[in-house]
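Input.
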Amino acid sequence: MNPSRQSIYYYLTCFSLIALIVLLISWETLLAPLRPGGSWMVLKVIPILIPLRGILKKQIYTMQWSSMLILLYFTEGVVRAFSDKTWLSSMLAGLEIALTVLFFFACVLYLKPYKKAARAAAKDQPKVE
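Output.
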């Protein structure tokens, strides 16, 4: 894969994760909280803060499991996009969906050459019986 293309995928991964963190915090504290003045729902940002350091350090394993973790936020976005009563909250949920999809595909495309290399290395290993 083209190294510049892979770096684009990496930067898209970082951008979408950081943007999602900012979105979730601002959504539940300022923009459209469930209760006036803020909500405990802001705590939902904690699980995606955990892989942030590993992703910024380009740790392959962290990117692999965080690409599965992000699907929970995709699901939450879909549910809230169709169930929230306010227009702003539904639009923020749509933005959450877009950011999670961007993160997932950028992360998978960034990891693709590493997976290909791992398969080739495993193929070259002699089998031990």
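DSSP finds five helices and no strands in the chain.
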